[in-house]
Specification:
CATH architecture: Up-down Bundle
CATH class: Mainly Alpha
Number of domains: 1
Helix content: over 70%
Structural class: mainly alpha
Number of strands: 0
CATH superfamily: nmb1532 protein domain like
Distance between the termini: 27 Å
Length: about 190
Amino acid sequence: MKPVGILMWEHRLIERVIGLFPDQIAGIGQTNRVDTAFIQTAVDFIRTYADRTHHGKEEDILFRRLENKDMLPEHRAIMVELINEHVHARSLVKKLVAATERYLEGQDTVEEITGHLQSLARFYPEHIRKEDKDFFHQSMDYFNKEELDEMMREFQEFDRRMIHEKYKSVAEKMTGEPIEWAPPGMVG
C-alpha cells in the first residue's frame, strides 16, 4: 500500500461523519434547538481526526516531503490550495465552536450554527474530491519506492503518537495545569 491509500481510507471515515450534518441541520430547522452534544462530538472529531491526524499527515509529512521535489506547477498550485483549504476548515470549526458557546450562554445563534454546519458539509466533500482525484495519486509519482516506504513508516509513527497527544491534552484540561510527560520512545 502507498501512503495515498491511508489518506484515502481516512477520507471515507471523514465523509461518514460529515454525512451526518444534513440531518442535524434539518433537525435544527424543525426544532430551532441545537444538539450541543452532537456539535461538541463533531468538533472533537474534526479537530482531532480530520485536522490533527489526517491533515497533519498531509501537511507535516506528505506536503513537507513534496516541498523539495521538482513538482509540476499545477501540482504545486493544488498543494497550496489544499493547505489554504485546511486553514479555512480550521476557521469554520473555530466559528462553529464560538457560536455554540454563545448558544450555551443563552444567545440565539441557531442560524449561525446552522450556517457553519452547512459550510462544513459543503466544504469537506469538495476538498476530499480534489485530494482524491486531482492530487494524491499524482503526488505519489514524485517518490521512489524507498521514499514511499519511509513515508508509510512516518505515517504509522505519527498515528501512534496521536493518542498520547490527545489524552495528555485532556488530562491537562481536567487538571488545569501543563503536564510534562511522554511515553518512552516518544519524546520529540
